[in-house]
Amino acid sequence: MKAEGERIMNSSDIQAIFDRIAPVYDRLNDRLSFGQHRIWKMMAVKWSEAKPGDIALDVCCGSGDIALMLAKKVGEKGKVIGLDFACQQLAIARSRQAIKCPTIPMNWLEGDALNLPFEDNYFNCATMGYGLRNVTNIPLCLQELYRVLKPGAKAAILDFHRPNEGYMQAFQQWYLQNIVVPIARDLGMESEYAYINPSIEKFPIGTEQVKLSLKAGFKNATHYPLMGGMMGILVLIK
CB of 164 within 8 A of CB of 135? Predict the structure, then answer.
């Protein structure tokens, strides 16, 4: 397990995984979460406090779910930039925008969450969904997010987590083995989704994320556990 966990931390491996799963990514998310992932993403957008006219950033935007939700908040006078390192995911995001938010300014950029291609103090708010767990340097990612946000801006980071309670840890293991693996297998993506469990094991728990965020410079950091601690949203204020 340790060797597998170390292997998937290679950024090229992770990028290849997300490119391969792009065609079925949205269907898998719907089936794996029974549609609940959209509610969690809406919570992250709400906590980012995006408002009309804002310039918003969605890091690790994937197929664009959260970025499109941000677009509805910032409106036609605002702007949303979605950044991801998986070009196949970005292609899907662009096609979805053409249907759902054709009149709202949105840019989709292929880029690195550890080296954001933006100037300092640029964004009014930011989000990240299921991305922090997959970067190879979490402190650097948080520092970059801090750098590009304007003073007083908020960021909301949604991700899977290890629950604190033993019974919830057992349930999470059961869920991964009996729900995630069979569904991914049905869609021919079993090996691609095998990375989830080791990535969760290596991911800092909520209290550790708060400490890392404060060390990165944020003046306030609060972690809100969801689903018995299996999910969580880290809310940051610069």
Answer: no
